[in-house]
Amino acid sequence: xxxxxxxxxxxxxxxxxxxxxxxxxxxxxxxxxxxxxxxxxxxxxxxxxxxxxxxxxxxxxxxxxxxxxxxxxxxxxxxxxxxxxxxxxxxxxxxxxxxxxxxxxxxxxxxxxxxxxxxxxxxxxxxxxxxxxxxxxxxxxxxxxxxxxxxxxxxxxxxxxxxxxxxxxxxxxxxxxxxxxxxxxxxxxxxxxxxxxxxxxxxxxxxxxxxxxxxxxxxxxxxxxxxxxxxxxxxxxxxxxxxxxxxxxxxxxxxxxxxxxxxxxxxxxxxxxxxxxxxxxxxxxxxxxxxxxxxxxxxxxxxxxxxxxxxxxxxxxxxxxxxxxxxxxxxxxxxxxxxxxxxxxxxxxxxxxxxxxxxxxx
Length: 362
Ligand code: PMP
What we know:
Blueprint: H1 5-8, E1 30-32, H2 46-54, H3 67-77, E2 84-87, H4 89-101, E3 107-110, H5 116-124, E4 128-131, H6 143-150, E5 155-159, H7 171-180, E6 184-188, E7 211-216, E8 229-232, H8 235-244, H9 252-263, H10 269-287, E9 293-295, E10 301-305, H11 309-320, E11 322-326, E12 336-340, H12 344-361
């Protein structure tokens, strides 16, 4: 896929560098590249999901604001529907945040390495991206420097746990950053279900009107293919999201599936517990391989320094049909792969394959 020069010449000049996104999601037997839930929906939900989807009236437009889902989420969180905006995955909500509060010439603070979508969307929307790099040694955020950058920012993008490094941000640090800025602060909690209890910043929205917390159904809750996420914030900020969003971006099938998941959150606990214990088991097994450095992380993935990352990724795929994410091009991530935590057997296959490849590379 490439945009021909004749077409590129017609595009907005500031977008001329862009290429189509394909996600490098080649077909494979063991998918450990997108931090999905490799178990799928719990079996206990299968029948109810089929029934719920069969009842969806696809001849009717969806409820633009997903109010049924908002009410379920509000009840779960002890908030009101006015505190919640639902979107077509977290990606869309990140775009909407930057559309509403960023834009041409406005400052967006990013802490690379971070979720690549932040910088991409911010630049597409003409924002000035102010990067406050994470520490080279352990990817911890430089909170003092973020506070300084935040003081003149319109939007501050924080991620906890961070993708691709897995670091958590302390709640006190998020509060300090909120106090330091007159802009909007995002805490992207896409992976929060895999972090220790008490790590979330949701309750801080009571203190900070301009704090936005992002959640998704794509990771712990097995709906990556349905595309559904939500933000939690003060009613004023939520109205700004509602004003800029595409009205029908969250379709009826997705709303029905997400409502079912919220009603049955507890059914996902065994999967989440297993992912957390597998993450520890995988980290130990990978650290045992000569030449591998595992960065401790709190998501459903691990950042692993292996050396020749691009070649190792290609060999894992070509020789073992295992797909992982090559993040060696991300700031501070030279030599690194990001490996999702899968089922125990998948994790065993990954560890064995990686050990074999790295022994041969030596
Ligand atoms: N935030 C982070 C940090 C992510 O890693 C992802 C997915 N890779 C998302 C948000 C968005 O997820 P989705 O669009 O599937 O909800």
